Queue: 4 jobs
Job 1
Amino acid sequence: MPYIVLARRGRPQLFANVVGQEHVTRTLQNAISSGRIAHAYLFTGPRGVGKTTVARIFSKAVNCKYKKGSEPCNECNSCVEISSGRSMDIIEIDAASNRGIDEIRDLRENVKFAPVSSEYKVYIIDEAHMLTTEAFNALLKTLEEPPHHVIFILATTEPHKIPATILSRCQRFDFRILTRSEITDKLKELLVSDNISVNDEALSLIAENADGSLRDAESILDQMLSFSNDDLGTEEVSRFLGLGSYQLLDSLVENVLKNDSAKSLESLNALADHGADLSQCLKKLVSYFRDLMVYKINPDLIDAAETKAQRLAELSKNASVEKLMKVVRLLTLTESDIKQLGYERLNFELALIKLCRLKDESIPLDKVLGKLQEIESRIYNVAPETPMASGIVAEPETAYSDAMVGSVDVTESKTDSPELKESDPLNSTWTNILKDIKDKCSPALHAILKESYLVSVDDSTLIVDFDPKFSWHREQLNDSGNKKLIESNLKEIMGKTMKLVIRTNDTPNKNDTPVSQKDMRVDAMQDESVKMVLEIFNGRIVDVKR
């Protein structure tokens, strides 16, 4: 007997044998059992997950006279003919090569004829998205109202290319990709029937490279068995897939995480000496670091063999999620560069050197919060006479009226800290003034004034200023009518005539003395609070503003 490849030998003949598509097979079985059979179906999903296989099983089930529940018997003449591809009532059309309007016109003529020996005539149109627009238009009316003895099944890997008018006339079923464990279990089942033993790690590697396609996995396994004469191990699979040695790839990942550029390049060189396809190695490296990243976040999301899971647990301890994200991003950019520019090995080597120089500078959030609390506690424990980092100089004023005596510079003294408000009498004075203006003057003027901050105050003058972003508020306060209204209320509040001045670059401040940028930087460096912040966060002063 001629040899039949695994992909054909392992093709399911019953709904129960279909791997990983229970949501589809159960719905179709219920439809068959209840007699609610639609006239058109659309099967979508990646290649090699069972779309055409399910279509054939469905064709057998609707035409089988001796079906067991909703499963075909696979023994009657109808089932045998369909399984062997000899049935004249099951027509499979490859839309990739029969995509024109002439082929669809022939189909429209043929659907009128009754089935030869079956109850239903089933048209299975594979790669349906390849049909031309004219062909879809020609199919539209027939698909909407076919004869009662016709069922259409459209299979496609690209449902977005199917016109909406066609989609609306079909029951759609989305086939999912298969997991590694589902593929390996099926491969084991096929190997048991052939009395062949293959270790789980080799099968797992085949499943990972099949990208969720059972047919691809079966084809790889079939070819591997011929390559190795039934003596199949992880190294043979790795070498056959163009990955060189699996251990070398694993050591490459470890060297990158250790930031050892010399050994990383040695591992890459060894992979090249083993005849590895470097583009395949790069893809595998991306997949490996992606698994590490996901495993670091949630180990349950990784579908891997036990030995691989243990290795992921071991390696993921040496890097943070942030660093792994950077690694994956850099590797994917390297893939793109190689496709566009070439220089495969050079770009791969450059990527490894960059990866090994990536520093894991991320700080966990709980540590950041802890350091902020430490800064806060240390700042508030500073003696009252010590100048604060914000530029506030606390004066030992106590009474409301006494705060008017002298001139105190409080630039950038706005703060929400209750401790600072209580310790700064000028800040307390300004708060009370604003409250009285709101109550006795105008809420609108209060809304303008509250965005300002008090610069200085003496017996006759009150100087305020605004941040640059409050230019509109500055303009409103410069209005003579508004200023007079506020000054009249200040006289009532303070008990004496007060002049309101809005500081500009030319406005003198009695306590201001010319200070250079260099002097301010020196003063900041000597401030104890600034020293604490720089020390804890390993920071540096970028700019100093008064």
Note: The radius of gyration is 39 Å.
Job 2
Amino acid sequence: MMIRTLSLMLCCCCAVALWAAELPVTGVTLFSSGVGYIQRAGTVTDDAVVQLSFKPEQINDLLKSMVLLDLDGGQIGTVSYGAKDPITKTLGSFAIDLSDNPTYGQLLNRLRGVQVEVNGESVADVGTVLGVETKKIAAGKDQVIDVEVLNLLTDGGFRSIRLDEIMYLQVKDDRLNAELRDALKVLATGLDNQRKPVAIAFNGKGERHVIVGYLAETPIWKTSYRLVLGEKENALQGWAVVENTSDADWTNVRLSLVSGRPISFIEDLYSPLYVRRPVVQPQLYASINPVAYQASVVGGAIFGIDGTAAEAEDDSNEGGNGQWHAVSGKPQPESAPMNQLMSQSVQSAAAARDLGQAFEYAIKDPVILPRQQSALIPIVTGPAGAWKISIYNPAVQAQFPLYGLRLKNATGAHLMGGPITVYDGDVYAGDAVIEDMQPDEQRLISYAIDLGVTADHNEGAGTEEILAITLVKGLLNVQRKFRRTVDYTFAIKDGKDRKIMVEHPINPGWDLVAPKEFDENTGDLYRFILPVSAKDGGKLTVTEERTVKESLRVMEMNAETLVSYQKTGKISPAVRDALQKVIQAQGKLTDLRAQRAQKEQRITKIRAGQNDIRQNMDRLDHASDLYKRYVTMLDQQETEILQLQKDIEGLQQQEDAQRKELNDYVAGLNLE
């Protein structure tokens, strides 16, 4: 109802102008988090209402982020938009409920008490609706059908009219007619879910400049790079992939690209909410298959690279890449190097600016990009430092190293992560991928398999050594050292020397023993640089150690285990003697337990025999000699059982005393 009332106000108030044309898009800022800030600008005169339209899914971002400016003394009025109630709820609010898709008869039944005019081939009358009922009517011999009839109260009395005979029916109540039309309009609006109008009121006098800004979901802008390696200089060129998926053309738009990830989410502010349920979308990161090398946290600056070309001494890494000509695949006539031609032909169209939490590329010239079109815009051109090296990581490629570069960002601009195509001179060398790089930051990239080198890695079986044993307060404290080695071996097949960077995983708890120093440490990897000659090949042995301490309760250890610790060479004489006493005491306990067990078994055997004797006695005459002999035997056995029980009790007492003595002895030891 508010929208209809507002529409009447706008139509009736002749002092307010409705701007049918949308404000043109004048500025776009795209973020790498999947949102864009859209700015529209134009002029209005006096009190005006600017009409914009948006997709329903854009309304939440609009309500959350919209910024309105009236720059020449005006004021912002009301921003009106259609409420987003479920259509069935809206339809249910009208006098004539169409929410359940009623039939003709059901609709007329809801008009009870309303005056209608009915016309048909054989009927014409005006009356008040009493209701609709179903009657059975003969349709032929022995055939009856159900027919809906409309019951009316007319000036001539009650009248029933078959619905299939009515050709025209008009509701005589103007108010109900309007309600019915409004309900049908709501239905029609529900069918058109492509665009939703938003009316923005600007109040003031004279001609004024106004701005409307808001966030909208946009495709993530992407980057791709070209790196050309030259004899003296290297050239890096970065391009931004920008997509205009909106319904508005970008004509002379100020475009900025921001390589930051501000937190962005969707909260449903458009729908009437009875329970507040924000919808939060996770940040979107590209899934990348190529190797993205971590930045080093220790080392990595040892190469001293700048914007110059790869060092000449490593030109041996150029071959074996399956290379092809950058343009035609044919030999190129002598001309300027490709890196110089690229720098001359393409200039960066963006001015880079550090925003602290992000980095902005502001496109210098206005951009023209029609809707549903994409563009490739140069944003970075400049020198790059590059030092050639082969990189071996068996988790990436077990048989061969990869051709790689240590790349230094010498452009002075932030580089957002993306694919990078490497050209060696004017020859395609391979593809790589980089993560975000700050100015002057160095990063490894790999772009091809080095088939001129075969690699192998072999993990040794590992060793274990007991370093020390102490005996303190009943605990046997054992210090062990574990050692393991991994051998990396390389053989060169193409006759060219290499420098190979070996990446070895850092295992928590293990200390690096050999080599004593690493060239880089990324936090997850050690990196070692190994010169490999074409004649002799190369080998790197990485040795790691781990020390483990454990405490064992002496009283819970058996004699065999104690003997094994007693025989180790890393034990002091005092601890060895103490263990010998413990072993002897445990031997006595074992003997006592064995004696007690033997006597308990004897009692068990006697009891079993007595059961057999008693069963035999039940079948004998008590006066018989055999019966009397059984009685005597049972008496003797009971005497033996009593003695055995007495012996067992004595053995148990000796065992308890021996155990207490051993516990006291062990608990009192303090042999470091």
Note: Residues 1-21, 283-289, 311-334, 341-347 have pLDDT under 50 and may be disordered.
Job 3
Amino acid sequence: MARIELACLLPARNAAHDLPGWFESVARFADAVMALDDGSTDGTGAILAGHPLVRRLLANPMRPSYEGWDDRANRVRLLSAAADLSPGWILWLDADERIAPDDAMALRRFLAQGADRRHAYLLTVYRMVDDLEHFDAGRPLVVGRLFPFEVGQQLPTGHLHFVPLPTSIPPSRWVRTTLRIQHLAGMTAQRQRARYAKYQEAEPGRGLARRYRHLLREPRDVRRWRPRPPGLPVVLNGPGLRDEGDSATLPLSVIVISRDDETRIERAVGAIVAQQVPAPFEVIVVTSGTDRTAAIVRTRFPSVRLVELPRPALPGEARNAGLAVARGRYVSFPGSHFELEEGSLATRLEAHQRGYAMVTGTYINGTLTRSGWAAYFLEHTPALPGRPSGPLAAPPVSCSYLRAALDHVGGFPEGWRAGEDTLVNSALFRLGYGAWRAQDVRLVHHTLCTTPGRLLRHQFTRGRAFARVLQAERKAGPPGLGRWMLGTFRRLSLYGPGRLLWIEKQVRQWSGPELRRRWRSARWLAILAIGASWLGIGDELLRSVYRSRPSRLTLGARPGPSDDRTHV
């Protein structure tokens, strides 16, 4: 008998309508199925008994309702019986769940290439809406489902709600993946009500309405299901990041977005093409506007790929236009107002190849007016020269990316004047992608904030963008817009003093005497600019009161209460 690399364990009750599609999905990745019929009153038992993938079928006595449902006891029986199969790995997949063909292929490849048997792996569950082509991006969940099998494994205590991973694998060895599960239980209003009724029968009189009201919630952000991006690694970040069949032909693409930048574009692109990198890389310049930027690039840099947009474009649209033609596994977006110092691209590529999907560096001020210095400290305090290299505990302000990670979240939002990368970086970090600061990646920023007026206008615009990010990242549709607004304004009441104190602390910790002197000189302008930013935040939030509903551009996953969902 061939070795069973992956066994799928299934506790099921009254699932006859779901089992044909479930077996079609499971046959793509599992070598065998161990199933338990939990007292079904329909044809579940007969379907399970008759399918060739099912190596053994356990059963509980028939009962008329979900009263007496003990999910842990069922899973313990299945896990114990799995010893008869001696599988290498176990995957829990419920009857109302599916794994799409491309994720199934990635799962099999991941196990074949040597998934770490010291770890258990977490998958993301997405609620499907109406069919398998649409899902609710507003509330995906992280679940623990995949682990290496060993005889004698025990599951945590609990009646219904627990993480079905062996207690011998502690949470410190739970690893998040990009593998996705499609959840059908909330696909229609009828299925939502049936699921709610199931818990009503299983746990009568236990505050059901409050505990399970999320099961009846309307979808908030319905999107079309996207295929798995080529080259997307299964393990998200760190030294274990792998190339999962990447189709890119180059290690690195450098994309410069430019709008009416004829006075700066030659300096920016020249610094990039002069970089010495031990691997091939391409340079793409995306231009829009009405000046001579495109002509300068075409004449001075004939080897650079030029993308000319037919109309003035905001940053998200320009970034996506560059991504559409990029061939690199990693992509960097130095703007036309940045100048790369020698060696920066090589260091950036090395950091990515160590296993980080996001890499940021050090920013140097190239605008030496007092307003330029104020802008520098307001925008680049996390990237001061004295801060050492290392992993980041928060999303970077700006960075380069693993291309497949950008594809994972659908690229950059368009229609934003600022903050489009902040939203993406937060989404990637929330999904579990790692970020690394490489101190020797050095960029000189030539900001346009040369005068106090320009500085204040720019910070007002950035404040409005920050407010849009706050709206887009709301972790759940609020019980009422007024309550959400009240809580947001309460949090923002300390925005100004908190931001100022944070900058002060970072400057003391990571700056030398010269930078500290510059900060003292520009501090009063920075305070005014923080006030302008705060006004921009308030302006945008007040505008949202008069809109029907703020734009829901939520990206990525966040934990929430439901069944065996892992809260990470």
Note: The two ends are 39 Å apart (CA to CA).
Job 4
Amino acid sequence: MLDADLDKVEAKEAPGDADMDTSEDAGPGRPGTIAEWLPNAPMEELQVCLKALAAENEKVAAQVKTMLQEERAHQAWVDKQEKEWKEKGEPEKVAAPAPKESTATAAQLDEPQMEVRYIPLRLTSEERTLLGILEGALYVSEYTDQVDVYHVGNKARRMGLQIQQVCAILAGLVVSNNFDVARRPLMERGFAENQHFFRSVFEIGRRYKILSPEKFRGAYGKLIHMLQDSVKSDVMRVTDFECVAPVKTVWTMVQAKQRGMDLLRDPLLLTATREIYSDGRSRAEVQAEAKEKTDALKELKQRYAEKPQGPAPKAQGDLGELLRGRQNETGVLTEDNVQTIVSSISDHLAFQRFNREPCERMIQYLKAYFNPNSSDPSLEINKGRGGSCLSHSHKTQYTFVMQSLLLWREIMGNMFQLWQLTEQDLLDSDSSYRLCDTGQGLNRMQSAPRVSRAMHQILHKVQSEVGSWVGLSVVHLGDRDVPNALVFIDKYTQVPRILAPLVSTLDKIPEVANASPANKALIDREFGGVEVLRTAILQDFFRHGFDGSGDDGGSCIDGRLTSCWNWCSKIEKKKYFHAFLLTGFTGFDGGFETGLS
């Protein structure tokens, strides 16, 4: 409709622009068609054209009015949030803490009840088989294509039928995978009678995603949106069962076992879950520490594992047990349970190291190569130069980068908690969403009070460490910038994908230079040496990776990450890009992919 109206106004000659026409002799520098004119048209001409359209067409006028109302409402919300933060006053200034050498410390398990509450259980081999079947079912499903569209008719019925279709595909794949075990339960009973099985399979997919955010990307968005609809009362009346089960964590397991809490408080657990590092250590030292870790696990099994009365329980995720609606009903800790608990906590510590270490290393690089009280080298940025949307002095930009990295490090350390709070917000039956065009297609816009509360606690903690805050303190959630908690959490899974390749390149530059005289001569000739090259990369990243080139100016909490990704997307155009290639750089695996189909 808008294109037709634009053509109509163009044919009548747009007001204030008598030189614009569609003829071939429109003149040099003036495009001859509306399609050629629009992308490069001055803002003043676009405003004049839009006013003319609004004056002629009531529908266009209504659309313009709605857009202006939404923009004013959004700006009012941002102003209100910022005002609330300022009224709370600035926290007492405290020096920024030095980065920790390792996240796998005893302090992490000082309060086991709080720590393990959000640690998912590692998947067993049986559960991984069901995970592969779930991925296949979601791959062929067109759930979001059928549901997240504007259409007439009973939407709840459409959702229910699509959910049943996914369950039917899942049942067919399970039967084909294990015909003897699954044929009778799945083929002779209805969906509701097999609800324990379907809930368990969906829970396995959700748990796997929390453990491995870089995996299960497209399928997870489809799964979580399906489960988001399944908790609605009118949809449940169609499906006749509830699809959502709580995610299994270390905490749920130890609570269900008789001596579970004693196991968590045992000091040997720290030894059994400790990560082993080989850097700078002899082979004998690494082997001795590995033996100590193995012995600690054996001792824990001897202390706490018991043999259950009766037949031995089936493995977690056993297909036959899931179809019967029961799993691990024994109340005693078995050797497999102890192994699962230790492995899950070890996975958690490794996950934190993988996510936090790039942030800590970048903080170390910032402190090593730059001084807030000295502008040589300088981090100063100016609006309009180099794509920057902000103007910061050297000291202000140093503080802006430091607080951003500290915030990301804190978020990475609480990733499991934030992910489970994300699912609680998304799967809350009392919270509804609405389809909204956010400028990036239709998105489910929904509030996220639990994630918002946790993020504000994290933000307050970082603010107390860095003192005065540079930029906005607004956390976008449930608006057009970050429409729901899924988009929010997926944005922050990109942090290690952005920083880890950068840290790897900076670390390997000296190794590459010392690998051969030709490499050293190349780096010296092209960049002036290893340290000059490192400084140039860091200076450019700390400047233009945090220059506010986000959607709303980039100084808010989420805009910092957006501008950082903008820098990554332009890495091929940097003059030092071939130095990245020498270190084995292949790209930044990321982008703000929500996993939606």
Note: The chain has four domains: 2-73, 106-116+249-348, 122-239, 370-582.
